[in-house]
Design brief:
It is a single chain. The chain is of the alpha/beta class and 436 residues long. It has 3 domains: 6-23 and 240-369, Nitrogenase molybdenum iron protein domain (Rossmann fold); 29-104 and 124-235, Rossmann fold (3-Layer(aba) Sandwich); 402-434, no CATH class. Helix content is 45%, strand content 16%. It has 17 helices and 14 strands. It has helices at 11-21, 29-45, 47-57, 71-77, 83-101, 143-156, 175-183, 194-203, 220-229, 254-265, 280-293, 300-310, 319-329, 341-345, 362-367, 403-419, 423-434, and strands at 6-7, 108-111, 117-124, 127-131, 160-164, 188-190, 213-215, 234-235, 243-248, 272-277, 312-315, 331-337, 351-356, 393-400. Strands 1-11-10-9-12-13 form a 6-stranded parallel β-sheet, sandwiched between helices. A 5-stranded parallel β-sheet has the order 6-5-4-7-8, sandwiched between helices. Strands 2-3-14 form a 3-stranded antiparallel β-sheet, with no helix packed on it. Helix 5 (83-101) runs parallel beside helix 7 (175-183) and helix 8 runs parallel beside helix 9 (220-229).
């Protein structure tokens, strides 16, 4: 049996749930060391380091001129992408754009009767770097990552958007990635991957410009590189393996529960797929469905490893308990596959995205529903949100005092400054009081 269902109240169940609640982890020390060396090398040697790593790991014949995708390559890509795929890209673009437009914030100001004006100035960052994984050496282009990362940046008003993606062995980039980028207005595309791509975006090289924000998924080396450059640049999040938690009652279909668990498990051997159900029957039937559907997958071995090592099926006493457990786990994708999902929605406290009902599989959110699929993992949904327009915005406070307002507040400002031992602060007020 690939997964052994447990009850929430059993000793095994309690042990499993405790593990799920404490799953946040950073890269191992060896990975941190390797990434640190890569970042240092790119900072010192720039393009020379990028070519060295690209030759070693991706495209042995790449030259400096080939690092940037040309206009000719991008134009030619349209002739290499099937019309059906192009239509799907454009539909996804439209849906994602419509959703994220609602997130845009505006600058604002407020006034007080004494003439004081305060407010907030909302502006886009000047530049953003979008990292797009190669996807099995370019065989499975992650066009959804291009759209999900690039569109919110465009809506925010980021003037310079740079895309980084590893090249295939022949130095090419999958045409679907080039088309997706062009469809959302990105034409500056570099054929650079892994941690050295993140280092180049953070510090700049002779060819690759430094940016203000870096977003996009990747393997443990990409995630660790983003962590190490965080602070110099803003990042979207430190992402771990993909996750789904399904809450299901008696009416749920085992075939659907199994299919949705497998949809996460096929991502990565470390992916996490969990079913919390009030039905012991459904738990057993889902296990049978997992065994039935696994051989149908192109990534069967990856999914099988993920389920065997990290998959979980827990039988709960009722939906309230299941919901409480889900809130403790704070999952990336939460599916409410129950008879009345909207009745549970108000009880959701921590989740990256919530999918309601039997016809809202997580795959809808990955591609065409509209909300962003870049979501917090490893329990960080307790404190973090999905990538959105705000990721690319910065806010400045606005403060304007009239003379009347300044005189009214002067005593309070000096009192607080002197209390904190900041006498120069107090004097900056005092000199103005003396200047009548």
């Amino acid at each position: 049996m690939i997964i052994q269902p447990v009850t929430s109240t059993s000793s095994r169940g309690k042990e499993l749930l405790a593990t799920l609640n404490d799953r946040f982890q950073l890269a191992d020390p060896k990975c941190r060391e390797i990434v640190g060396d890569i970042i240092s090398r790119v900072r010192r040697s720039g393009d020379e380091a990028l070519l060295e790593y690209t030759h070693k790991f991706d495209a042995p014949e790449m030259d400096l001129a080939g690092l940037r995708a040309t206009e000719g390559e991008i134009t030619a890509a349209y002739g290499q992408v099937d019309d059906t795929i192009l239509a799907s890209i454009r539909l996804a673009k439209e849906r994602i754009w419509q959703f994220h437009q609602r997130e845009m914030e505006e600058s604002w100001m407020m006034t007080r009767p004494d003439g004081t004006i305060t407010g907030r100035l909302v502006q886009a960052v000047a530049s953003a770097g979008l990292y797009v994984p190669g996807g099995q050496g370019g065989k499975t282009p992650l066009v959804s990552s291009v759209l999900m990362n690039g569109i919110p940046a465009a809506i925010a008003g980021v003037k310079k958007r740079v895309m980084m993606t590893p090249p295939a062995a022949d130095g090419s980039v999958h045409p679907a990635l080039l088309v997706a980028a062009r469809e959302i207005g990105i034409s500056e595309i570099y054929k650079v991957g892994s941690a050295w791509a993140i280092a180049a975006l953070a510090f700049g090289t002779e060819t690759v410009p430094a940016v203000d924000v870096i977003v996009g998924p990747g393997n443990q080396f990409v995630a660790e590189a983003k962590r190490q450059v965080m602070g110099r640049v803003r990042i979207d999040m430190i992402a771990g393996p993909s996750e789904v938690l399904i809450i299901a009652d008696e009416q749920a279909k085992a075939a659907s529960c199994a299919a949705d668990m497998l949809a996460q498990a096929e991502h990565d051997p470390q992916a996490l797929a969990i079913l919390l159900t009030t039905s012991a029957r459904l738990a057993e039937e889902t296990v049978a469905e997992l065994e039935k559907q696994l051989p149908l997958l192109s990534r069967e071995e990856i999914a099988r490893t993920s389920l065997a090592e990290r998959g979980a099926i827990v039988v709960c006493t009722d939906l309230d308990e299941a919901m409480a457990l889900a809130n403790d786990i704070a999952i990336e994708h939460l599916e409410l596959m129950v008879a009345e999902p909207f009745l549970l929605l108000g009880k959701v406290e921590h989740a990256g995205a919530v999918f309601l009902g039997n016809y809202s599989p997580e795959a809808c959110g990955d591609y065409v529903a509209g909300p962003n699929h870049v979501l917090p993992t490893m329990g960080t949904a307790r404190i973090s949100s999905a990538l959105g327009v705000e990721t690319f915005l910065k806010k400045s406070s606005i403060i304007a005092y009239s003379r009347e307002a300044f005189l009214a507040d002067a005593e309070h400002i000096q009192a607080l400054a002197n209390l904190e031992g900041l006498t120069a602060h107090a004097r900056s007020v005092a000199v103005r009081l003396a200047d009548k």
